[in-house]
Amino acid sequence: MVPKPQNAAVQSVTHRPLPPLPKLRVRRPNKPETNPCLGIMSSVLGCWASSGKTAAAQGCAQLEQKLRQCMDAPRDNNPKKNNINYHLSRMYPNIVGPHKRK
Length: 102
Description:
The chain has helices spanning 38-59, 61-72, 84-96. By secondary structure, the protein is mostly helical.
């Protein structure tokens, strides 16, 4: 550790305030969901890679069955839309606080 000289003044860094936001908003809140079977599929592929072709039918059968069940499961075609932007627009006046009208 280097000792500081006694006469050295501490320089304060001044930060400019951020410009005001016209509104709070999350970009693209409705991202598509990842495939729920992706983890099981990677496990099956890892099992096949590690066991080779001869033992793949015996050791990986249970994982393959789980993958089949996951792929055959029904999917929701109408995903629920995210309502974060609605709540942010409601809360924005409370976050910004009172301001003067011109």
